[in-house]
Design brief:
About 25% of the residues lie in helices and about 20% in strands. By secondary structure, the chain is an alpha+beta fold. The two termini are about 35 Å apart. Bound molecules: flavin-adenine dinucleotide.
């Protein structure tokens, strides 16, 4: 066990700054590694102390409890960068690269595949874990493989092919395994006109920002769609738009969004999620399942 804590390690850091809902209590320990070596050293530090370890990206799919999180929380948003090969369509991106940045960059290189990703305010790592998708596209369709680190293992990263990630609607096996995604490789379609791909990408962003509450803190869609139904349509049909608990509100613009109107706590948001779920269950018999990841709450079988 090394005598010195790894660089950048901080105790008691409030996590609200690191989530798009702007809620969440303190991480017992927190760091934003600047490179892969720092990440490995921090993961080792946590393992040597038997501390729980969690990685977050842009925090755009997280509800973190007001009581905070035990152990070490690593935010990888500083691990940015990507290499785009316009000839072959092979794209390598660091885990913390914002997925909208990547979508713009590959469009400029004339690569088709990520036009749908421009409005998703997450990272490349988070997109792989969540199988993020929108407007008919999703991560699983274009991902070749991920480079991961097993923090309980040797410290050597290994590559997992997309075919072995058990991808499904907003699901991958990475949600159940304690693996840290370091980078992702996409295989996109080369040979397209950059102006046309860029125009499609911009049109996708425009159609989202005009139908969803992008100006207020949120986590995007709260519930998975109970196919063939749409969660938003069910919530709206029950007249729940505008329902509030504390500072949390079912968005008047899009019923599957819960927004923080300014002073919401994680408990407010959690209570509103439960209220909506209960009303939908009572009226339709359908049990909605949250798409957002709830961290620091007691397990409830989702
Ligand atoms: C306005 C808005 C619109 C949205 N629209 C969409 C949409 O259209 N489609 C959609 O799919 N989602 C949408 N989302 C949700 C969210 O952006 C996606 O789920 C996104 O992929 C999450 O990425 P993230 O980096 O924020 O991950 P986080 O929220 O930080 O983490 C999500 C999960 O991934 C894990 N994780 C993150 N990074 C790593 C890593 N490097 N290694 C291991 N585990 C990791 C975390 O532990 C957590 O379990 C939206 C959110 C907002 C706020």
């Amino acid at each position: 066990m090394g005598p010195n804590p790894p660089p950048g390690l901080r105790p008691g850091v409030p996590l609200q700054e690191f989530t798009t809902w702007r809620v969440g209590g303190p991480a017992e320990w927190f760091a934003e590694p600047a490179d892969g070596d720092q990440l490995v050293a921090l993961a080792r530090w946590a393992r040597e102390r038997d501390l729980p370890l969690r990685v977050i990206g842009a925090g755009s799919n997280l509800l973190i409890a007001d009581g905070g999180l035990p152990g070490l929380t690593l935010c990888v948003r500083r691990l940015q960068g990507s290499r785009v090969d316009g000839e072959s369509g092979v794209v390598e991106a660091e885990a913390g690269e914002p997925i909208p940045t990547l979508a713009r960059k590959v469009a400029r290189a004339g690569l088709h595949g990520l036009e749908w990703a421009v409005g998703i305010p997450g990272t490349v790592g988070g997109a792989a874990v969540m199988n993020a998708g929108a407007q008919g596209g999703c991560t699983a369709e274009w991902l070749d493989s991920v480079l991961v680190l097993d923090p309980s293992g040797s410290g050597e990263p290994h590559r997992i092919r997309a075919a072995n990630l058990d991808f499904d609607y907003r699901h991958s096996r990475l949600q159940h395994e304690p693996l840290l995604v370091l980078s992702a490789r996409f295989l996109l379609e080369p040979g397209h006109e950059p102006a046309a791909v860029t125009a499609r990408t911009s049109a996708n962003l425009h159609s989202r920002t005009s139908t969803q509450p992008y100006q207020q803190p949120s986590c995007g869609s709260v519930f998975r769609n109970p196919e063939p139904e749409k969660a938003g349509r069910l919530v709206e049909s029950l007249g729940l738009k505008g329902t509030r608990i504390g500072g949390a509100e079912v968005s008047p613009l899009h019923a599957n969004f819960i927004v923080n109107t300014g002073d919401a706590t994680a408990a407010d948001i959690d209570a509103l999620i439960n209220l909506v779920r209960q009303r939908v269950r009572e009226s339709t018999g359908i049990d909605l399942h949250p798409e957002v990841k709830r961290l620091g709450f007691p397990p409830d079988g989702d």
